[in-house]
Amino acid sequence: MTERLAPDAVGRAAALLRDGHLVAFPTETVYGLGADARNGRAVAAVFEAKGRPHFNPLICHLPTADAAFEEVFADDRARALAARFWPGPLTLVLPRRPSCRVDLLAGAGLDTLAVRVPAHPLALALLEAVGTPVAAPSANRSGGVSPTTAEHVLDGLDGRLAAVLDGGPCAVGVESSVLDLTGAAPVLLRPGGADTAVIEAVVGPVGRPIPVAAGRASETLRSPGMMLSHYAPSLPVRLDAVTVCADEALLAFGPPLSGAGVVWNLSEAGDCTEAASRLFSGLRWLDAEGARRGLRGIAAMPVPVTGLGEAINDRLARAAAPRDGAGSAA
Ligand code: TXA
Ligand code: MG
């Protein structure tokens, strides 16, 4: 059963989030399905609750621009846009800082992170009270319509989250605009609540429109997260390993195979939600550790294709695919 919280229960909502539970909350655009972004297990539970087939990266919500720019590097364009739009319906994709506290899964393993400061008093009060970045996709089942009332959230997700903070209907009703600032020129990944002409006036060359990414405006957005190269460790990956050699690193699932040079266990208990939360950090760690010890590759044990196992298998297949550039995007 999902608790329905009145606006004065912000403290309870914050406590639930800090304890690793999922809490939906209102923003000016749509309701978000929030999780403590530092907590990989909670972030994995977001993908699970939504039934999101891929680890499409999540937006991290913060109460102020200063708080956001502690997690990502902000250039002059980002600062100018933040000054103009935040709090408000603009999301900025920026490079993660090395000190970024956000779990890798929330950013789908990318070196970039989407951040925004929502313009809703309850959202801001919640974010202040939680004190950590909150990862939140729209609070609907994957493929469904974004929710603009607490009722909508419960219609799709009742029982899959701890609570929904009821702030009444959302004022904007469409999701935030997503602007990628990681390249030399800004790219609009998703038009949304922020006026594109105003974005252009702040950052674009006068009179020149900002390019809009192909395949925009949906969760099937061809984001960098869908590209093979972002998931490929430098060591080759061998799938469905049933044996392992001493000169291999092992990505284990369940009871580990014996004999590996170094082991990262996705989930000793064989739990796909836990495994998802440990996938990207595990691949990075095995890659670094394997290279340091001169190992020749990473052997990955089979992961069942149930729940988040589907997304895990998708990412592992990308990581193991030939590196000649073929199939480098999905
Ligand atoms: O208004 C909104 O943005 C709402 C409220 C809750 O804040 N959130 C929302 O999240 O719409 P979601 O997950 O439904 O959409 C986030 C979009 C996705 O299309 C995702 O691919 C993109 O942002 N995105 C997130 N992080 C990214 C990154 N690092 N690089 C590129 N795209 C990213
Ligand atoms: Mg969505």
Explained architecture:
The protein has 330 residues and is of the alpha/beta class. Helices cover 28% and strands 16% of the residues. It is built from nine helices and 14 strands. A ten-stranded mixed beta sheet has the order 1-8-2-3-7-4-6-5-9-10, sandwiched between helices. A hairpin with a 6-residue loop joins strand 9 (177-180) and strand 10 (187-190). It is globular, with a radius of gyration of 20 Å. The two termini are 37 Å apart. The relative contact order is 0.16. Bound molecules: threonylcarbamoyladenylate and magnesium ion (MG). Residues 27, 29-30, 32, 56-59, 91, 93, 107, 110, 112-114, 118, 136-138, 175-176, 178, 189-190, 219, 221, 223-224 line the site of threonylcarbamoyladenylate.
Broad structural category: alpha/beta
Mean pLDDT: 90
Measured distance between first and last alpha carbons: 37 Å
SSE run:
EHEEHEHHEEHEHEEEHEEEHEH
Q: How is the biggest beta sheet arranged?
A: 10 strands, mixed
The 3D shape can be described as globular
